[in-house]
Amino acid sequence: MRPWGGGSGTGCPTWGTGWQGPGSRSGRGSSRHRWDGQGPGRRRGLLRSSSANGSGSAVSFHRSSGNGTREGAVTREQKPRQRRSDDPREEILERLATAYKAADEATVGRTRIAYATEPGSDPEALLALARERFENQEVGYHILPGWDSLLDTLANHLYSRQARRVAVQSCELFDRLGLVQALAGRVPDLCVLGPGAGLDEIAAADVGITTCEAVIAQTGTLVLNGIERSTLGLSLLGGVHFCVAAVRQLVPDLEGWLSGRPAWFPDEACILVSGPSRTADIEKTVVIGVHGPWKVSLFLVKE
Fold first, then answer.
1. How confident is the model at residue 214, as a pLDDT?
2. What is the Cα gyration radius of the chain?
3. Neighbouring-strand partners of residue 246
4. What is the signed CA dihedral for 291, 270, 208, 124, rounded to 10 degrees?
């Protein structure tokens, strides 16, 4: 039996990474050949050889004949990568800067999202679409005739949930309505969270009450301003999240609101809430309230 790894003239492939068999040229790097699946008796097959030297790398495909010659070689040359800097760190940073610059200079056309249902701008149509989305996403909603009925409605819902500790966002709207004063005698523990509120204080609340910047009718999404730590924490850490908004804050879609949002609204502090927290495992079993509120309710007030 002829041993594997024979030299030229055998027609057999040479295997190995560091060892050079007979017929190989020393000093020119390593030579690798891959067999095409034919046995030792089939001496004509497609071989792939790669060699490395100081000038880069080359990959060639050729067909081996019975006498060890190569037929129809096709070579693909790969030029060595040019280093931009001798310092690896500076080279990586330079490449990143070049890539970001190219991305900034690229012109990307805006694509409008086509929805199955176009809400239009009619207030009643927007409200009807939003209610449908809220029901599908298990968001509780309450349509109130005016601001006068908001305080009693909130107090009744807090009482029905037996909420003992309630955290309220510090904002101009709640100050104008006198929300804290109205709930002070109905809730055992009521606190107003300012910008410097701690996470432990926020997480200890049974119910968190916030406002929102807009309500997206197309997706049933609440848009919150997360520039303040208290608003961000109340929408994520509490077990129940109550949100107060006016019907006039309903907008058709997110794209329209982003294009007309206030100039002071920061791009990096936008919170989108589309229902309670949902977590699914590998078996696609959905669990509510594992990584956030298990209940989200919206109080929409008609003005």
1. 92
2. 34
3. 301
4. -110
- For 206-215, write each residue's pLDDT tens digit: 999 999 999 9
Q: Are 154 and 147 in contact (CB under 8 A)?
A: no
Give me the domains of the chain, ranges plus CATH numbers. 10-81 (no CATH), 123-301 (3.40.50.10420)
How does residue 14 score in pLDDT terms, banded at 50, 70 and 90?
very low
Amino acid letter at 200?
Answer: D
pLDDT tens for residues 56-98?
A: 445 554 555 555 555 554 455 555 566 666 788 888 888 888 7
**Chain centroid to CA 15:** 46
Q: Which tokens go with 53?
A: 């030297």
What DSSP string runs through the chain? -PPSS--TTS------SS---TT--TTS---EE---S--TT---EEEEEEEEETTEEEEEEEEE-TTS-EEEEEEEEEPPPPPS-SSHHHHHHHHHHHHHHHHHHS-----PPPPSS---S-HHHHHHHHHHHHHHTT-EEEEESSTHHHHHHHHHHHHHTT--EEEEE--HHHHHHTHHHHHHTTSSEEEEE-TT--HHHHHT-SEEEEE-SEEETTTTEEEEETTSHHHHHHTTTSSEEEEEEEGGGEES-HHHHHHT--TTS-GGGEEEE-SS-EEE-TT--EEESSSS-SEEEEEEE--
